[in-house]
Every structure is written in C-alpha cells, then in structure tokens.
Amino acid sequence: MLKLPKVRAVFDRKKKASAIKAGMVEIEIIFNRTQRKTLSSGIELYSNQWEDGLVVRHAESKKLNRKITDLIKNYEGIARSIIQDGKEVTYQTFSSALDRKSGKFGTDFIEFCYYVMERRGLRASTLRAHKHTLETLRESRIIRTFDDLTPENIKRFDFWLRQQDPSREQPTLYNYHKRLRPYVNEAVELGIIEESPYAKFKAERGKNKPKNALNDEELAAVRALELRDEGLSKARDLFVFCCYTGLAYADMDVFDFSKDVVMVHGHYYIDKKRVKTGTKYYTPILPPAMAILERYDYQLPRITQQAYNRLLKCIGSLIRTKKNLSSHIARYTFATTVLLGHEVPIESVSKMMGHTSIQITQVYAKILNSSIEKQAERLANIL
Questions:
Q1: Reading across the β-sheet that carries 267-273, which strands appear in turn?
Q2: Which residue, 137, 171, 200, sits at the end of a domain?
Q3: Is residue 1 part of a domain?
Q4: Residue 209 pLDDT > 90, yes or no?
C-alpha cells in the first residue's frame, strides 16, 4: 500500500535564531529514513515566538499559523495526487509534481523573480535596478511566497517603502512597482497564481517635488547644534558627512575608510562604485567630513535608514527649517550648496556624484541664482 509522507513545520533548523535574530519556519516532507525535503514558508520568527509547533507572541500569530496549516495541506495534497496516479511518493516524484505546479521554485516568489530576470537579457543598468527592487522586497519581509501576492500586501509594501525612506517621491515608488509587476504577470501566465494583485492596486506615476537643499546658513546651523542625545548627535554627524561628500545612505552605510579611500597629493578621496547603480564616483573628503571621521576614529556609526530619517526630522525642527531633512537632501545639498554654489564645474560635480551623464546632474542639481549672479558680475567686468 502506498503511503503518504509525513509533512510538518520545523523552526530554526540551522539553530541561528535568538531573541534578537530571526530564524526561518520551514515545511519538512519526510519520505523515509534517508529522504526528506525542506521548503521555505517565508515566515521568520524570533526564538521566543515558536512553541510546540505553533507561532506565539506575534502580532499576526493567528494568520501565520493558518498559513503554515495551508502550506502543509497543500503539500499533502500534492502527495495524494501522486498516489492517485499509482506512484510512490519519493523525493523525486514529489519534486517533479511540485515543479509542475509552481514552476521549479516551491513557494519562493523572489527566487522565481531571479530565475525569470536572468533569462530576460536585461541591460546591466536595468539588471541592477531590478535586483535592487527584489532585495528591497526581501528586506520588507512582506512578500516572500506566491501566497503573499495579494492586493493587501502590495499596499503594505507600498506603505513600507514610504515609511522606510520618506524622501522617496511618487515617481520612485512607481518605478518599484513597474519593475515588480512583470514578474507577477509571469506568475499569472504560468498558472502559479490565479490573478495579479495589481489588478486591484494602481500605482500612480506622480511628479517629483521641487527639491530644496539646505543653504549655507542652514547647514552651518546643523553643524553648530549642541546635542546631548547620542542618537541625534550620530544622525547629525552622518548627515553632515553626507552633505560634504554627497554619499547616498546606501553608500554611507557600507563606507569603509581603509578600503574606499585613496590619498592624492596630500588629500583624501573616496574612490568607489555606487551601491544603487554601480557607477564609479570620485569625491574629495572635505574638512567638515574629515572632522566627522576623526571624531569616530574613521569608523562611521551605523543606523537604520528609517531611524536615521526619523532623527533628521527632529534635527530639522531644531534649526527651525520647513525643509524636510532626509538622507537624500544631504546628497542634494552637496551638489547644489557645497559644489555648484561655490562654482565647481558641473562636469566635476557629475563625477563626484557618480552620475552616468551630465543630463542627470542638470536635473538633480538646480543652478543657483547666486552662481548666475557671480558669473554675470564677472562678465560685466570683462566686457
């Protein structure tokens, strides 16, 4: 008589979970003493959130337990269908049946996306953008499996993007969805999911808002703040560092003085590729930025982007500016106030910012009135 395999949920198989580090819940299919298969559930928990095979002490315990039960029933159903065909349920027959149902990827939507992406022949720059979108999706922990592809979760992901970085404007948010949607459509076409969640969610294109860099007075006010709170002080220092180097948050977060800096004619320069685009940038470490590095013994403090932007809002209120301080505003301040405001040629600005073309720099950094006035005065004296 053909037997069903044992299907159960297991937590933290690799024994890495703790009170501060999450472990994965997996579904284990045991065929016999020597053959078993484990599949991701897309659920990550801390060590105190799993007891006796159930999710506990979690805001969504009921929902997650139901998801685990549904996954177990799904895999049991696949096993039954194999038996109904008169075959023994083995690792090979089960894997083949699962491949036919979910297209080789079990329940993992993100791995499915990578598989499709690698076969689309995307240009290098487009490929980087798509990988960035998928890793951002992975970081959100909202959509991991095909079952997670619901209109509600797409909305949650959109909200998470806004919360994670308030400086993201609508066109940027739209691009995340634009890059994700083709993979969702592919899953529909292959019959892995019945309907695209985007059928009930529409991301608006929107328009970029005018960017407001800090002027010299506001930047000086930020630097002059006397802050007793350690978190505020670190956020201010990181912001000032970026205002004088042009680093985006992602580049600042991985900055390593010992690896990323070169000395030329007695001056330090950051010589590296941008995390977001892979484009090389070469920018001097100006004295205010060097002072920050010296303060922290050349190792910048680490802080999550969400916490960083939240603290920057507090700093903005302390200097009484209506401008929304963010990691992106620091980069914009570097381009306009620090560089263009002091008549650095736009070609040099483009190189320091790591832009792929001058056209991007022209859009990114508005030409300051003060610079035009200085040029006009110089021409008046010559002509």
A1: 261-264, 267-273, 280-284
A2: 200
A3: no
A4: no
Tell me if residue 108 falls in helix, strand or coil: strand
Query: What pairs with residue 10 in β-bridges?
Result: 26
Model pLDDT for residues 339-373, shown as the tens digit of each residue: 988 888 888 999 999 887 877 777 655 555 555 55
The residue written with tokens 């205002």 in the block is: 243
181 CA to centre of own chain: 17
d(CA 350, CA 330): 16
Query: What is the sign, positive or negative, of the torsion defined by CA atoms of 184, 190, 193, 197?
Result: positive
Tell me how far apart the alpha carbons of residues 58 and 140 are, in angstroms, rounded to a whole number. 17
Residues 77 and 20 in one domain: yes
Check if the beta carbon of residue 31 is closer than 8 Å to that of residue 91.
yes
How far apart are alpha carbons 298 and 82 in whole angstroms? Answer: 61
Cα separation, 243 vs 208, whole angstroms:
21
55 pLDDT higher than 80: yes
Residue 78, exposed/middle/buried by CB under 10 A (0-12, 13-18, 19+)? buried
In this structure, what CATH number is given to the domain that contains residue 183?
1.10.150
Q: Taking Cα atoms as reference points, which of 240, 234, 346 lies closest to residue 287?
A: 240
pLDDT (tens digit per residue) in 93-119 = 888 777 666 555 567 899 889 888 877
250 and 117 in one domain?
no
Q: Please check whether residue 173 lies inside any domain of the structure.
A: yes
Provide the token pair at 52. 């006796």
* Amino acid identity, position 4: L
Q: What is the 3-state secondary structure (H, E, C) of 334-361?
A: HHHHHHHHHCCCHHHHHHHHCCCCHHHH
For the stretch 117-128, pLDDT in tens is 877 778 877 888
Would 356 be classed as within a structural domain? yes
CATH number at residue 264: 1.10.443.10
**Residue 94 sits in the same domain as residue 113:** no
- The residue out of 59, 85, 102 marking a domain boundary is 102
Which helix H or strand E contains 140, and what residues bound it? helix 124-140
364 found inside a domain: yes
Domain of residue 165 covers 109-200
pTM given for the model: 0.57
CA dist., res. 383 & res. 378, Å (int): 9
**Total domain count, the chain:** 3
Indicate the residue type of 355.
H
